[in-house]
Structure formats: C-alpha cells, structure tokens
Design brief:
This protein is of the alpha+beta class and about 375 residues long. It is built from eight helices and seven strands; from the N terminus they run H-E-E-E-H-H-E-E-E-E-H-H-H-H-H. The chain has two domains: about 5-295, CorA soluble domain-like (Beta Polymerase, domain 2, 2-Layer Sandwich); about 325-368. Keywords: Cell membrane, Ion transport, Magnesium, Membrane, Transmembrane, Transmembrane helix, Transport. It is a multi-pass membrane protein.
Amino acid sequence: MRTTNLLRSQAEKIGFKRAKSGAPPGTMVYTGRKEMDQTHVHLTQYGPAQDRFEHQMAEDAIPDVHETFGTTWYDVRGLHDVELIETLGKRYDIHPLALEDIVDVLARPKMEAYKDGVLFQLKAFAFDEEKRQLSVEQVSIYLYENTVLTFQEDAGDLFASVRKRLETKSGRIRSRSADYLAYALVDNVTDRYFNVLDKIEETLDALEDGILKRPEVKTKGKIHDLKLSLLTMRKSISPLREMVGSFGDSDHKLITEDTQLFVRDLKDHVIQVNDLIETYRDVTNGLYDLYVSEISFRTNSVVQTLTIVSTIFMPLSFLAGIYGMNFEYIPELHARRGYFILLGVMVTIVVVMLFWFRRRGWLQSGDA
C-alpha cells in the first residue's frame, strides 16, 4: 500500500472516530467504511448427538435458531448495520462495551472477559502480489454459552475451512463445546497469516532477482510498499501474543482446560508469525541497501568506462594536436608514410593502455 493511500485510509477512519467523541461509553458507532450494501448473517448449527449439520443465510435479518442443536454459530458479515448487531447483542446479552468494540474497526487486538461472555478481536490480512497491497479486516469473535458470534467487515468467508470441517465431521469441532469453536476460528485467522507471509516472501525473492539482474527506479517504490505492509502487520499482530496468552490462561467459566491446551500451542504459532515478520523486515531493509549498492555500482561502472575512454583519447588528441600545428618543419611531415606511422603509434598507445588497465583490474566486468 502506498504511503499516500495508507495515510488517506487512516485519515478517513480517524474522521469516523471523531464522530463518537464525547459519547458515553458503550455507544455503538461504526468507525470503518461501508464495504457491502447489505449485511449477511450466516447461521450454522451442529452438535455431537446430531448426524446432520445445518447452515442458512439471511440478508439484514437474523435467522431463527433450532434448539435441538448443541452449538450455534452466527457469522455476521458487514458491520455498518449497527441496529442488527445491537439486536444480536440484546439476544445474547453482549456487554455494551463489547458491542462498541465490535463496530470499531480501529480497535486493538485483544481479549476481553465479561460475566456471561468473552470477546476476541484480531486482524485478518490479504495480500495482492501484483499491486503489493495489504488489506486489513477487523474480526471479532464473541463466545457465549453454547454460542459463538463472529463479525467480519467484508463479504468474503474467512472461516470457509472451519465450516468445511463441520460439514464433513472431520476433526474435533463437532464433538467439543463452543469454546473450541472460538479457538478454531482464532487459529484459522492465524494460519492465514502464514499464507500472507508466504506471498510476501515470494515478492521479496522476485525483487531480489530483479535488483541483481537490472535494478529499476520503480524498484524503490516496491520495496517501500512491502516495508509498509510488514509494518502494518507487525503493529496488528504484536498484541495478538498477549491476547492468545490471556486465552490460554483464562479461568472464565466458558473456557475449558481441554481447549486451553490447544490455545497454548496456538501461542507458539503467533510467536512464529512475529518472528517471520521481523525477519522479512530485515530482509526488506537489506533489499533497499542492495538496491542502493547496485545503483551505485552501475553508476561507477559507467563513470569508469567513460573515464577509460577519455584517458585513451588524451594521448591521441595530444598527437593529433601536435601534427595539426601550422609549422612547416615538423618531423615526418613530408614523409610518404608519415600518416600511417602516426596511426600505428596511436594504435600501439591504445593497446598498451588497455593492457595496462587490465593488469590494474580496471576493466573487470560487472559480473566478475
């Protein structure tokens, strides 16, 4: 993402943020941009005693729950419909402060425990390799008794792999409680970080090859884009370690010890992601240094070539200048082969100088 676009995006969000300045705590104000026309609500229900899995979707409405299922999962896509989210909040007794954070896309990744529920907030990323742009999406997961509610900014399904596991009965989700589903959703978003970092790594490799072969002026902008993307990821993922740590050590009634064992493993993944980001930031800084070095080296090569050419022509110009003087008595001036003798002397001087330059190592090629 270019610096101007990034600053413009942040300025727009800050503008929305100011709209809630002075409002009492718990006031729901959507601080992002409207990404879709209608809010989609996806309802998924499953349980260990049921052989069937049910999924339904509604626009700008809340699908009805079948009480026969063990676990209920509402997936809300689109945060601009504050009234609909408030209705869900009243139905599942979501704390007003939690509702305020859900519609605040600038909220820091964190875990907040309330009396009857737990809120997890984190960022999801997608990376466009061609444009080298990193898109950021706010994701909120609210854990309630036998119920999980997720809130996404965009219409895309971030949790498609989790939904597929539920449909095929694979894994542990169908046989475990709602807190394990919340863990699986957080883990799913974390796994997507590795996919984004893989794309960034491929882009870094391509940039390195391009710099070594033929550095271009626009390469500097590409490196700057990647540097901004990694900085954005670092700022968003660094607090995630604290959130996952709180998840794994929580004594909340809705979080079981069995699930916490898996959460502690998730903490290792988060640490690995942070380490990769720091590594790629160092690589990006190294690429910039490599770019500057290559540009300087090629510039010096051009200057060296021009200097050698100028140096070679200096004695030739000297000789041509002497024999171009208007004096009648100049040695070899009237000699029949004087012109060819002078050319031979010039060629000999060029050969001797080139040989000497090569002995000094001044004629080494750029690939040497």
